Amino acid sequence: MQLTIHDLAFGGDGVGRSDDGVAVFVPYTIPGETVEVEVLRRKKKFARGRLVSVVTPSPDRVRPECRYFGKCGGCTYQHISYEAQLRFKTGQVEQTLRRLGRLDDVPMRPAVASPKPYGYRNRIRVHHVNGVTGFYSADGRGVMDIAECPIASGEVNGRLLELRSRPLADGDYTLSERRETGFFHQTNDGVAAAMLEVVAGLITSGGRLVDAYCGAGFFAQALRERYEEVVGIEENEFAVAHARASAKPHERYIAGDVAEALPAVLSSGKPGRRTTVLLDPPAAGATARVLDTLLAAAPEEIVYISCDPATLARDLGALKSAYRLESVTPMDMFPQTAGIEVAVSLKRRV
Hints:
Blueprint: E1 2-8, E2 14-17, E3 23-26, E4 34-42, E5 46-56, H1 82-101, E6 123-129, E7 132-136, E8 143-145, H2 154-164, E9 171-176, H3 189-202, E10 208-212, H4 218-223, E11 229-234, H5 237-245, E12 251-255, H6 258-267, E13 275-279, H7 288-297, E14 301-306, H8 309-319, E15 323-331, E16 341-348
Parallel strand pairs: 3-5, 10-11, 10-13, 11-12, 13-14
Antiparallel strand pairs: 1-2, 1-4, 2-3, 4-5, 6-7, 6-9, 7-8, 14-16, 15-16
């Protein structure tokens, strides 16, 4: 069938509608394009299709830099100009917060671009199966042989080349610019630095900073000079040990589950001391217990860092009765892919 693509769904598929009104999801298409599509699967309310040809291309369409694009399952946006990627991702974040979080007013700020649209990844994970080394294929039928990844840094690609040159046992292999430490590091150093600047501009100095899901203290230690007291909570003991090794006298790190430790942390401290809570949970978002603790303790401000707009929307929906949404800043940690980080500023309602 021939379709006009009118939207870009989170995850990267273009969306058109058939003559009978059924939504058709088509990878590697762009809003505004007219395309020829082969329907692969059809349900009652939606269908999935394969792009056969682009009849009328979007001005945002560009030539992908990766020879594996469309076959490798890693990237979904290399056919879209980088400026347009930022525009589409910003719109997806706003739509998700409005729809899932039922937020009427979403004060969006301009997206933070990656300094490097390609060559930015300081770490990749490849798979070796039956003599093939690479990433999972887009069709989900196994591992695709990959000799070079354009979104990975030169150093990481050098390690991939070395890995491919020697006999390997079947399994997964992490290739990184830095020595493995046993805890999480951001994948894009340029955007990580920009994210720190964004967060620093959102918080109010003074009082106490509670950094929940603090990792090795990336935010807490960069911001500690602005607070009288800093408390980090993290379940990864290796990360906590790393943070403690360089902690100042006014900061401490708790090894444990955030849901269990946060109530005691927020109920302690000097009376009247204002509290800023920084939340940087995994993709699953904050647990119901964490959200209930925040609503009960009512810290003055919350800065929420999220890598999943859907779970962010859910959590903001739970907090909106007590907190006002001040700003939403998308940060493009993963160019050429559907991934997006978001920094949200929340202030307690008076």
